[in-house]
């Protein structure tokens, strides 16, 4: 081979190898790093605190409290991000950006948004915790939109089935039925089924008489697992879980999800997300690491759970990857 031809061949194979490396890097799952800054596609830390996930076809949408430093003091903001792999998130929009809708005054609260898609009405319905600065109102706020990441219109607020409601969680069962989990301070926490149009609650499934918030539920291996945190405000505490054969209960005793001295590794539950892959079903614990003085910098603790046969354990947080096709996890 003439030197110039050889040189071209070497360069060509080097380019090909480079392409392969680039392709591998592109297809390799991106790591999820609990507790660290989680940049979106713009390089900004994700603002989706106290959040929830809605899956539509192959896309996951993450909604949560947007506590960006530039936000106006008297308004409250909810942001929406999209992802195909749960690791790389594209900012879509501040889907809710509202002034005090019920004259609640200074320090009014709009927290823990959860968005449901109603396949009959084709509406996206957002539930969030609405309160005054002293957390005495204890209502849900409802907002709705025709598209997942459009501008949601504020509809109304109420106490679900007449009960106090503070922290909210969402649960979609395997049959598609949609439930709201809400903390009812005098009694414990409740799980209630949404009405046909999702604009109300129609049936209480159970009252779990444990004083827990940040309520989350997953159905895994034929059992329901409910997770919640103690009522310690922004400070972390040992989150706990119970199990039941049916949402109606009876529910088991509550047990710690992690060594209690770690206080859930500094986090508080917001959702349990089940990812069913071709090889494995993984359940992700989604938690918030709150920074009350600098809320825009609050972090996320997402870790795959060790779960099954009535046991649930949040392992020590460390970097991990998820293969969204197979459901397999590496950590
Ligand atoms: C927590 C709750 C948060 C927020 C905070 C305010 O208990 O989970 O969502 O409401 O209290 O202190």
What brief labels describe this structure?
about 325 residues; mainly beta; four-stranded antiparallel sheet; 2 helices; 23 strands; globular; disordered N terminus; binds beta-D-galactopyranose
Task: Describe the model.
It is a single chain. The protein is mainly beta. Strands 1-2-3-4 form a 4-stranded antiparallel β-sheet, with no helix packed on it. Strands 5-6-7-8 form a 4-stranded antiparallel β-sheet, with no helix packed on it. The protein has a 4-stranded antiparallel β-sheet with strand order 9-10-11-12, with no helix packed on it. 9% of the residues lie in helices and 45% in strands. It has 2 helices and 23 strands. Bound molecules: beta-D-galactopyranose. Beta-D-galactopyranose (GAL) is lined by residues 50, 111-112, 167, 213-214, 231, 233-234, 268. Beta-D-galactopyranose binds next to strand 5 and strand 13.
